[in-house]
Amino acid sequence: MAMSKRKRAGYIRYAQYGLLVVITLLVAFLADWGQIKGAFFNTEIAASMFPSVITVALKNTIIYTALGFAFGLALGLVLALMKLSSVAPYRWIATVYIEFFRGVPALLVFIGIYYGVPIAFQMQFPPLTTVMLALGGVGAAYMAETIRAGIQAVPKGQVEAARSLGMSSSRAMITIVIPQAFRIILPPLTNELILLTKDSSLIYILGLFREQYELTKFGRETLSRSPSLTPILIAGLCYLIITLPLGYLSRYLERRGTTGGRKKVSA
Amino acid sequence: MSDVAVEITGLKKSFGPLEVLKNIDLKVNRGDVVCIIGPSGSGKSTLLRCVNVLEEPNGGKIVVNGTELTDPDVDIDSARTKIGMVFQGFNLFSHLNVLANLTVAQRKVLKRSEEESSKIALHNLERVGLSEKAHSMPAQLSGGQQQRVAIARALSMDPEVMLFDEPTSALDPELVGDVLGVMRQLADEGMTMLVVTHEMQFAREVADKVIFMDGGYIVEEGPAADVIGNPQEPRTQEFLARVLDPTHHGPSDPV
Description:
In chain A, 79% of the residues lie in helices and 0% in strands. By secondary structure, chain A is an all-alpha fold. Chain A has a domain at 60-212: MetI-like (MetI-like fold), CATH 1.10.3720. Chain B is an alpha/beta fold. Chain B has two domains: 1-82 and 161-171 and 187-254, P-loop containing nucleotide triphosphate hydrolases (Rossmann fold, 3-Layer(aba) Sandwich); 92-158, no CATH class. Chain B contains nine helices and ten strands. Chain B has helices at residues 44-51, 76-80, 98-108, 114-127, 143-155, 173-188, 200-206, 224-227, 234-244; strands at residues 4-15, 18-29, 33-37, 59-64, 67-68, 83-86, 161-165, 192-196, 209-214, 217-222. In chain B, helix 4 packs across helix 5. Chain B is globular, with a radius of gyration of 18 Å. The relative contact order of chain B is 0.16.
């Protein structure tokens, strides 16, 4: 039977839609909706979480993430510059740091910093500092590679123009290259921020006080006192309050970067 | 001040095993316009880029405005402020608007005030006929406009010598005239200029001296009328025949 390619593609598409509908119906039919409602949508428990889920947990998640991101960005920039340095030992140090902290689970790093630093230096950092060091230290390893790629993506002619105007190489880096590099890497950097937001859940390991709880710890703690998984759902939705807008922002920046603003002139 | 703006003696430059400049001697008098012509790969852009040490020479001596740039102890950044450079690809700072492109080095390098640097920038934008573009971004300008902004940016540093590295090669044909017009006006005002170019008409009309380079050597030099109008060396004749009458020549010999 002769069937055109386009026609066949159409039939295959319908078959796929049909399969999706069947699977959805099957799942909906097999699930125990009464149980699910009790387990995830217990309005009483949900109500009991407010307002502290916002005023304490969400707020702390944002504070921890912001601190970690700021420190990670600064350290990541230093590591990126070291990685691009003409001084070989700088490159080695940066490579070892990046490979180590990218290759080891963040949870282990947090444990290491939380228990290791006080032993090594005979001092106890305040919790916010520990959070900043732990989250930022891991984030820096990822951001360093992104920043390095951004710096290398700035056309060589920009540095040559800057040098020809009498700027020193560090002046050219600060004034000309880094601002352009950050424009290029704004979308991937926003993604790093989203990842860091979720990684902030790992700092439950640092044994925080009640008023220092972030979303995941807060959710788990409420969970231990309730017969329902509702706290976990609420905590999860609160993460979306942060990550969804960041995702949109990232895609918006990406679109702006590829179309308007920085278009290439063919001349 | 001496009337020699640029003096190059015994200049050598290699990229790895490739010898690009082999013993170049060149003297440019103050106020002169010197055009450097030659086939691609002849070393003419490298020679120009050695004048402000964007390329580090392997040997020889370069003296610009009385400062020896090949001296290891020279403050090259400060020397470069007196040597303006215009690139084939414009190289405007893409994150800064036109005015900021013209003021950033004035403020960061020459430590001029915001007010003074803006005044100088606007004056130079006027010289290249682009006063109304002060607040545009580079990407909003045509290639010809970008190149004129690049010239104004270099002029804002008050250079004593201007280097042009194929300034019109990346432009659409109808935009070349605007840029050459600005360069001609600069020459008329007495600016010392070194120009690597394929614009024979410009070289013929504006240059005080034309240099023909091939294979890392200066093959022939002299007044434009001689080098372009009546070349003596066979290699110069061959090159000019190809450039001036491209449709009547077969493919060149493989190098």
